[in-house]
Design goal:
This protein has 9 helices and 20 strands. The protein is of the alpha+beta class. It has a domain of 224 residues: Chloramphenicol acetyltransferase-like domain (Chloramphenicol Acetyltransferase, 2-Layer Sandwich).
């Protein structure tokens, strides 16, 4: 019996996902556990695996499509099996469709040039002959010819890479507007505006047209679509800087204590007395949690007219992954021992990297404070950007030797770990932010780990 694969619901706030890559195509044999497709929410990337053995009979959506959660995505079964009842609305022709936004149903409206669902491919079922319209739809061709657009300049997002009307419209939004004479010349001579025009409001005139660049020698770059996560990061970072009054203070903490504790941790691991690897980052995060309990004004969200004070510390940790930067949250971090915190931080970081993280813990609203550590990369000083509506974020830098007065006029170089606190000046005053940053340094310099005593 055929098995339907649905778009999973990842977290309570996720309503739709975007297909990033189809790993299998109709007709492919699949084994239980094989990756069928990858997809993104607005916070993370995931992989969906096959629940059964069989043959992929059909895929109802294409790469780049936004699919509602719990919607039928694929059907796996036996070749020749009747799956009509499982196809749903994705294969029903919409006679009321007015434009090619109906491509989300995978079939274009009837037209003289388009007699059948050539965009559909179902394993074991006959398909109509592939013609030129497979690569550009009639409506897209008409619009492109009207606006003097070279088809070769457009990347199709329709089924099987077909150019559809919205692709042409997207291209026209990026291309400068053209005067009627410029359009006429573009049609006749195959010329295109290469940059902003010299006419009114940047309109391209005939003198602004140029022959297309030579594909081999004239174009030394390529353009790639950015991922959904990258778009989210870009919007969040821009909004953070645009909608807050951010200021960064830098301070160094004597790192001799945590370096000594790190040696003891390694020795204890080798002796088998502790099982969790407690890193320098874990120690800094533990010190941050202790400092936050002493400075509750920092453990807050600034909401404009109100400030939200948290009774518990929900610590976010910036994690660098192949899919982009993610900030998962360890809730109630102040209830954890150093070993418990270290274990939790490693667990959420691993979940981010392998794509199994719960999106609900990636929201900025889920955390009350964030730590971003670039020390492993050798960064000596940086300015982290706040995850609004949080009031502050701590940047952790690399350890460098600096001179220190050891007393009685004796100076020596000692290791210092750099700390960079960015705070929202609307929520915190400079003095309080400085005292909080100093408290983090004190906690680092006096840290005790019970399991090593």
């Amino acid at each position: 019996m055929a098995e339907v694969v649905i778009m999973p619901k990842q977290g309570q706030s996720v309503e739709s996902c975007i297909i990033t890559e189809l790993k299998k195509k109709p007709g492919d044999s699949v084994q239980k556990g094989d990756v069928l497709f990858t997809y993104e929410t607005d916070k993370a990337s995931f992989e969906e695996v096959s629940p059964v053995d069989g043959v992929l009979l059909t895929c109802l959506y294409s790469e780049g499509d936004e699919v509602p959660v719990l919607e039928n995505m694929m059907v796996i079964g036996t070749p020749g099996e009747d799956i009509t009842s499982l196809l749903g609305d994705a294969y029903k022709r919409d006679p009321q469709a007015k434009d090619e936004q109906a491509v989300s149903e995978k079939i274009e409206p009837d037209s003289k040039e388009n007699k059948g669902p050539d965009a559909i491919q179902v394993a074991g079922l006959p398909t109509s002959p592939v013609a030129d319209e497979l690569f550009i739809s009639p409506r897209a061709r008409k619009l492109a010819e009207k606006e003097a657009v070279d088809f070769a300049l457009i990347a199709g997002t329709g089924p099987q890479g077909r150019i559809i009307e919205r692709d042409v419209e997207s291209y026209l939004q990026e291309r400068p507007r053209m005067t009627p004479l410029a359009k006429k010349l573009a049609v006749q001579e195959g010329m295109q505006p290469q940059s902003m025009g010299t006419g009114l409001a940047g309109t391209a005139r005939s003198s602004d047209l140029a022959a297309p660049l030579n594909d081999v020698y004239g174009k030394d770059y390529e353009e790639r679509n950015i991922s959904n996560i990258r778009k989210l990061i870009a919007r969040s970072m821009h909004a953070s800087l645009q909608n807050s009054a951010q200021l960064t203070h830098h301070l160094g903490a004597d790192a001799r204590r945590i370096l000594e504790l790190r040696k003891k941790v390694k020795a204890a691991q080798e002796a088998g007395t502790i099982s969790v690897n407690i890193t320098l980052n874990d120690m800094v995060c533990f010190a941050v949690v202790k400092a936050l309990k002493k400075f509750p004004n920092v453990n807050t969200h600034f909401l404009g007219e109100k400030t939200r004070f948290f009774h518990k510390v929900h610590l976010g940790l910036a994690v660098d992954t192949d899919r982009g930067l993610m900030v998962p949250v360890v809730r109630n971090a102040d209830d954890l021992s150093i070993t418990g915190l270290a274990a939790q931080l490693k667990e959420i970081a691993a979940a981010c990297r392998n794509g199994s993280v719960n999106p609900d813990i990636l929201s900025p609203e889920a955390g009350s404070f964030t730590v971003s550590n670039l020390g492993n990369y050798g960064v000596e000083m940086f300015t982290p950007v706040i995850n609004l509506p949080q009031s502050a974020i701590l940047g952790v830098n690399t350890i460098v030797p600096r001179p220190k007065d050891l007393g009685d006029g004796v100076y020596a170089f000692v290791p210092y770990i750099g700390l960079s606190l960015t705070y929202d000046h609307r929520s915190l005053d400079g003095g309080e932010a400085t005292r909080f940053l100093k408290q983090i340094a004190i906690e680092i310099e006096t840290l005790e780990i019970d399991v090593l005593i």
